[in-house]
Amino acid sequence: MMENNRERKIALVAAGAASGIASGFNAAVAGCFFAIETVLRPLRAENSPPFTTAMIILASVISSTVSNALLGTESAFTVPSYDLKSAAELPLYLILGMLCGVVSVVFTRLVSWFTKAFEFIKEKFGLPAVICPALGGLGAGIIALKYPGILYWGFTNVNEILHTGKTASAPGIWLLTQLAAAKVVATALCKGSGLVGGLYAPSLMIGAAVGAVFGGSAAELINSAIPGNAAVAQPQAYALVGMAATLASVCSVPLTSVLLLFELTKDYRILLPLMGAVGLAIWVPSVTNQNKETEISDSSNLAGGYSSLYAAEELSVIEKAADYEAIDEDTLLENLRVSRAMSKKYLKVSMAVTVKEAMKCMHDSHQNCVLVVDEDDFLEGILTYGDIRRCLSKKPSDVSKGDSTALDVNTCLVSSVCTRGISYRGQERGLLTCYPYLAIAKELMEAKGIKQLPVVKRGGEPRRGRKRRVVAVLHYESIWICLREEINHRKSVYQHRKENNLEEMANDL
């Protein structure tokens, strides 16, 4: 149903991501967009075949249906009714969006700082890798002694925040401020130490706390300035928007955040303030990181682009800046040119050569293929041992249909046996790897089970129809050799950069 392993992996991971969000939050549409933003876009697979999209949609629908049947229609936490007093509140939501963006920036830099600190400690004292996560857990536990609300108890803490001022157990504004700060520090500490954990649930709690604090403070300021004025909604409304804005900024999922909250509230009035807040929450980190754009872009090539998701890793923009060791082979191949792996040692034979003569040339030159060219040296096709075996294995019934030379290698010409083109994804394609990057060539080889492709001139040379002059041949094993060399080079660059960071960290400490 899918033509190669990469497409299968992407489709399955995307379907799993969509079904997780759809069933967990009873939000099937948000689940689909979550898969697009955290799987397809980071892996540069937006142009995946329609089957992948169908899998995402069906997985989201089925998981949501099963969840509703077994667990009921209630979402992970109780969503209060949203209230927008007037359009005059919109500027407050924009300010909230920028505030959530600032929180995201602080959180990201804390993660980076803690990561460097733990690396320095590990190198300085020669500690085993398992000690750092233990230290991170110890630090989080100490913080939890003072603020137990930072621990994950499902979404109980989020529920309490969303009912600020309405229940006796709901925290007040000052306590929420402390909880938000403590949660940011504890989560960054755990993440920087290497503890396994996500950022999705912490972002929701931090955003809810920040939004409730902002909404409550804004209401007090406006009511004190204009007594009797009730133009500001309850803190719960700002907590809802703060959740989405912080989630979007920390995890880089703006569309998912908007659709998730819209599906949870089912209130059209929330869209304008929500979209404004999410947009500014995403904009703030991009502006603050402009000075580091060059450094991050160089390093992000190690982590695979938009985010560091490789099928089963954390869906977070934090990983892009902090986990330089993770290398996505598929993304690397998209940036490696065919010219780096191709070989100019190849055999050419004319179309009038027999299969036996071509086999002798291949044997004498220790090659597993020959390129077939016409009288003007334009590429006609490629002959491999696989083509010859298929020719020799033809049944007598096939010979009687007009292919009388199929079984005789002494008289059969290479022009009647060689491979001239293939059908891929429903389209007829030539064998010519006139693509500049190795990813397409590898995908084509794996999809059709072939081990070599000719390399031809892209342009600037005379050609006849679709024919071009051959310049080299690309072997499948050469792709992996080139990839290993590139990975080793990038790892050495990363190691050098890490040593420099440790020296800077030592100077700072």
Ordered list of secondary-structure elements with their pairings:
Blueprint (H helix, E strand, L loop, with lengths): L4 H21 L2 H13 L9 H22 L18 H36 L5 H16 L9 H7 L10 H21 L6 H26 L9 H17 L2 H12 L5 H18 L4 H11 L13 H6 L6 H7 L12 E3 L4 H10 L4 E5 L5 E6 H8 L3 H4 L21 E4 L2 E4 L7 H11 L3 E5 L13 E6 H33 L1
Brief overview, please?
This protein is mainly alpha-helical and 509 residues long.
Mean pLDDT: 77
Oligomer: single chain
Compute the number of strand runs: 7
In DSSP terms (H or I, runs of 4 or more residues), the helix count works out at 19
Instruction: List SSEs in N-to-C order.
Output: HHHHHHHHHHHHHHEHEEHHEEHEEH
How many whole angstroms does the radius of gyration measure? 30 Å
Features:
mainly alpha; two-stranded antiparallel sheet; 59% helix; 6% strand; 509 residues
Structural notes for this entry:
About 8% of the residues have low confidence. Helix 10 packs antiparallel against helix 11. The longest helix is centred in the first third of the chain and has 36 residues. The two termini are 56 Å apart. With 509 residues, the protein is mainly alpha-helical. It has a three-stranded mixed sheet.
